[in-house]
Amino acid sequence: MNSLTIRKPDDWHLHLRDGAMLAGVLPYSAGHFARAIIMPNLVPPVVTVADAAAYRNRIEMALPPGSAFQPLMTLYLTEATKPADVEAGFRDGVVTAVKLYPAGATTNSQSGVRDIEKVLPVLEKMAAIGMPLCVHGEVTDPAVDIFDREAVFIERVLDPLLRRIPELRVVMEHLTTRDGVDYATAGGDNLAATITTHHLIINRNAILAGGIRPHYYCLPVAKREEHRLALRKAATSGDRRFFLGTDSAPHLDALKECACGCAGIFSSINTLSCLAHVFEEEGALDRLEAFVSLNGPAFYRLPANEDRITLVRSTEAIHFPASVETGDGPVTVFDPMFPIHWTVANEAN
Ligand SMILES: NC(=O)N[C@@H](CC(=O)O)C(=O)O
Ligand SMILES: [Zn+2]
Ligand SMILES: [Zn+2]
């Protein structure tokens, strides 16, 4: 197959940041995706509905002229979040979901949740109104090995939570393990999971074999090959519980290439090209549309996009820049370490 036309994709997990970085990276998402769930881990975080409305406005102002890209906003859950604010934001269509960061688990998560008991009233309200909770599923217990933090989170936090509030609608964000795939697969209709492009492509060797490669470091950290294979199987299965969340998370190169580099991989520019490669490799190009364009809207109870995009396979490898310039400095682009032959033909803004 040399060309594939599908409904326009959405990105169900995206970091756009703010200011010059926002202006620098937004056009890449707006060109390929109709909508995206916008992560709220700014400094300071997006905690109130008023913060989310103001941030949405800044994103809309930074869009290329004529772009129809729609940012779907999230609230950063803290122990001070008020159920009534969350409910009002959801009912008014300002916020689509709430994001749970265990405090200390990832970039800008210091204001996140330490004690899940303290946020139960918010989660109960969300269950009652059908509002999704997006979860960064890693424990922060320093005694737990970083490669085990997702599996332990499921056992210690997520499973007890879902037993307590069975109606809560949960998206397990950026799955990285077979354990996560198994848990999502065994769950009910209220449980779904996003998978990133890079976790379908790299395993942990990419970060550490032959030297430390900070541009492959993200959280949750990539795991062993068996986990990557489980993620590939889930993503290419067509199973409606799994959908794309790129977790494209730009950081300035200077902040990644240092003694204590930040976690995050910037992939919005070549994500669809990389995914077409992965799905082709798995003999599953006919299921790419389910993963990038259908399963996400179905879970979020939104219509699938009516616009279409066409992906084209060329014989020559396509050149992507090694990094993109932002007003704040360069940001390295995810390198899948294979030649890319697929591109989006009808790039829109
Ligand atoms: N994925 C990452 O490695 N980093 C994300 C945070 C997150 O999604 O956990 C970021 O904001 O940089
Ligand atoms: Zn995360
Ligand atoms: Zn993220």
CATH-defined architecture: Alpha-Beta Barrel
Q: Major sheet: size, sense and barrel closure?
A: 8 strands, parallel
Helix and strand pattern: EEHEHEHEHEHEHEHHHEHHHEEEE
CATH level 3 topology: TIM Barrel
Radius of gyration: 19 Å
Shape: globular
On the 0-100 scale, what is the average pLDDT? 97
Q: Which regions contain 5 or more consecutive residues with pLDDT less than 50? A: none
Distance between the termini: 26 Å
Count the strands?
13
Give the proportion of residues in helices: 25-40%
Associated small molecules = N-carbamoyl-L-aspartate, zinc ion
CATH superfamily heading: Metal-dependent hydrolases
Give the tally of structural domains: 1
What is the number of helical segments per DSSP (H or I, 4+ residues)?
12
What proportion of the residues form beta strands (DSSP E)? 15-25%
Structural class: alpha/beta
What would the keywords be for this entry?
349 residues, TIM Barrel, eight-stranded parallel sheet, three-stranded antiparallel sheet, globular, binds N-carbamoyl-L-aspartate, binds zinc ion
List the helices and strands and how they pair.
Layout lengths: L2 E5 L3 E4 L4 H14 L2 E4 L10 H14 L7 E7 L6 H9 L3 E6 L19 H10 L3 E3 L13 H16 L5 E3 L5 H9 L4 E5 L2 H4 L3 H4 L16 H11 L6 E3 L8 H4 L14 H11 L6 H13 L7 E6 L9 E4 L2 E4 L9 E3 L5
Parallel strand pairs: 2-3, 3-4, 4-5, 5-6, 6-7, 7-8, 8-9
Antiparallel strand pairs: 1-10, 10-13, 11-12
Helix pairs in contact: 3-4
The chain binds N-carbamoyl-L-aspartate and zinc ion (ZN) (2 copies).
One zinc ion binds next to loops.
